[in-house]
Amino acid sequence: MENDVVSKNFIEQEIDKDLAEGVYDHVCTRFPPEPNGYLHIGHAKSILLNYGLAGKYHGTFNMRFDDTNPTKEKVEFVDSIMEDIRWLGADWEDRLYFASDYFDQMYECAVRLIQKGKAYVCDLSAEEIRAYRGTLTETGKDSPYRERTVEENLRLFEEMRRGAYQDGEKVLRAKIDMASPNINMRDPVIYRVARMSHHRTGDKWCIYPMYDFAHPIEDAIEGITHSICTLEFEDHRPLYDWVVRECGFENPPRQIEFAKLYLTNVVTGKRYIKKLVEDGIVDGWDDPRLVSIAALRRRGFTPESIKMFIDMCGVSKAQSSVDYAMLEYCIREDLKMKKARMMAVLHPIKLIIDNYPEGETEYLDVPNNLENEALGTRKVPFCRELYIERDDFMEEPPKKYFRLFPGNEVRLMSAYFVTCESFVKDEAGNVTEVHCTYDPETKSGSGFNARKVKGTIHWVAAPYAQKAEVRLYENLVDEEKGVYNKEDGSLNLNPNSLTILKDCFVEPGFEKAEAYDSFQFVRTGFFCIDAKDSAPDALVFNRIVSLKSSFRLPK
């Protein structure tokens, strides 16, 4: 039992305490994104944490869109967020909600606050409100409209609702304490006039609640017990508690904050991603160089790899950043035993076996995964003309180069030993063909052991090869310079973040491959069928990750 307590994170310890003391008799969590962009890897931590807590305590998990700001919200974002959360495996069952479902109740709560003398209509402009608010070292000063009567405030607020005022002309503010050491408690704005059409409520409303007022009410209405959020909301917690208390909610939710997930050298800011999309630097919010959940899925990451990564990051109060290489480690670990190891040649040159019978094809048994025999074998065609990787042949090799060069013998993977006899160059001096002879006795699996070779190379049978486009990705930003330019705040982009190889060849066997299917290309890396651009007769592969990395798990 003692070990069980030690292994729990601080949030679980707080929930245990609340249940033991009878504060709550159940657990209900939620994930409440604003539909103003695509979710990224940091959101995955929040989704899996909230969903995981609900499961651990046999409670419920709600999905709710905080759609209180129609200027930035789109149905496209709503749809993408739901797809991402389902893909991660978080199931809200029939509990899908929208903040806009509660606009009437929020309005009633605001009226109740006015009636209690806890809210007032203010005519100050946004700039004046900021000036009156004070600073971290100076207290704020009261608005000249702070002492309006309840009756006047009720009338003005109703007029705001009916559309009698222009945007920004009047706001409703909570009446708390302009001398509070917490700036968030200095009479925050809780409603503003905004003539905007909402993607769900249309033009019913011309006033909209502010997030800090709406969010605690949404939680309270839904019966959320623990409102789990990131550390930037820690200073907002007194306001959260004030709203649910003053609005008269029984058994109000409890807000608990945890540290955000920061990845090194990645772009997560919605403003920056939006600009990258609009400037055509990336081909959408799901470009595989981004770390939006849609981009990670398109690149070939799996829900299991992301869960492994989130688990390894842990839950704490301390802000820290995680190396992107750890995420790559997780996808390698997830895929290496699951996926077939296929042969693909990304920079092809022709290899001709001069003593192999012309017009003859044999089908060789090739293991799908040497580390996992359960994946079985497949038949791969082998014949006189093959494609091999350009860097698997050198005319004048350095020491310890064990691949093909004149006079050297290597094994063709799962096939035969071949010896390089000659090669052909074009007018520019580029090698276009390598000519070899093979030894029929050396067939793989035959038990031949009369001699050994030091090099093994892969290949694709030329007449059966399927042409493919392969996309190789590097970090979108220049890792040496950092993400942001210190002078103007722009992004330090890596000009080599995408390399497109058009004339690659893969072995036959991809006819039934579908979007997001992933494979290991032997000696090269893990690759995924691109969900946007690939077609059965025009394959496009994204490199998920290379085979090796210098990353080592921290002890």
> In percent terms, what proportion of residues is strand?
15-25%
**Oligomeric state:** single chain
Discrete helix count: 13
Distance between the termini: 25 Å
- The helical percent reads 25-40%
Low-confidence stretches: 1-6
Question: In angstroms, what is the radius of gyration?
Answer: 31 Å
Q: In one word, what is the shape?
A: elongated
Largest beta sheet: strand ordering: 12-25-26-27-23-24-13
Number of beta-strand segments = 27
- What characterizes the major β-sheet? 7 strands, mixed
Mean pLDDT: 94
Summing up helix and strand content along with how strands pair, one would put the structural category as alpha/beta
Subunit structure: Monomer.
Domain Glutamyl/glutaminyl-tRNA synthetase class Ib catalytic: 27-336
Subcellular location: Cytoplasm
Family: Belongs to the class-I aminoacyl-tRNA synthetase family.
Please, could you describe this protein's structure?
The protein is an alpha/beta fold and 555 residues long. The chain is 25% helix and 24% strand. It contains 13 helices and 27 strands. The strands form seven sheets. Strands 12-25-26-27-23-24-13 form a seven-stranded mixed sheet. A seven-stranded mixed sheet has the order 21-18-19-20-14-17-22, with no helix packed on it. The longest helix has 16 residues. The relative contact order is 0.10.
